[in-house]
Amino acid sequence: MAVIVEPVPTVAHPRAQNPAPARHILLWMPLLPIAAGLVLGIAFDRHVPMPWPVHLAAFALAGAVLLLAARKTPGGEGPAILALVLAAAAVGGIRHQVDFWRVPPGHVINRLGPEPTLVRLRGRLLTEPRIRVPERPAYGIPVGREPYTSFTLEADQVLTRRGWAPAEGLLRVRVSGAVEQVRQTDRVEIYGQARPIDGPRNPGQP
Known about the structure:
The protein is an alpha+beta fold. 33% of the residues lie in helices and 21% in strands. Strand 3 and strand 4 (163-166) form a beta hairpin.
């Protein structure tokens, strides 16, 4: 009796195949586009802040591209990766904007202008008061060397025309003279001139 043996086609294992780079990323590194997009979005919003509607529009555009890429088979892997990067960048930009650029309505800085403004605040000391004496300059010009006290205050109330209102924000306080009656975590009420802290004057300073 004759036996006929027919060759059986072999099926290569998926790892033995060599998919396109975009498909390889989606299969084996699906979080890479998302991580790259988050980093790009945060970095971009750090140097070029954009209004939040722009980020939402970018996220919607990424969703549309992702839907079109899902219908395009094969060949939709590249647009899908770009859509994931764009969507993650939009999320990263919004996250960075909320954490670093958004100023709450009750923040003390909203009541300050470019020039010193008189304010009355209540809050809690975040740091231990430090009594300092100005250093004498090396070039010998006589200056006042009266001691002063500095600390960081976490404001929770501000006096307005309608009375005390909730507030928030950190203030770097400097009081003339040696203040020894207060300690860290004490609640105090202060009255004086306040202004936003100037940014670095040296272009190389962060």
